[in-house]
Amino acid sequence: DALPIYRSLYFIERFGIMVTIVLLPLDRLPYLHRIPFSLGVISFVALLIAASWRLWQQLQKQGLQSLRLHFVVAALLLLPPLSYLISSASAINRDVAYHATLTLALVCARAFFFFVLLKANKDLWLLVRKTIYVVTGAVVAFGLFQYFFDTWGVSTAVTDLKNCCTSNSTYVFPRVHSTALEPLYFDHFLM
Question: Model's pTM, two decimal places?
Answer without folding.
Answer: 0.74
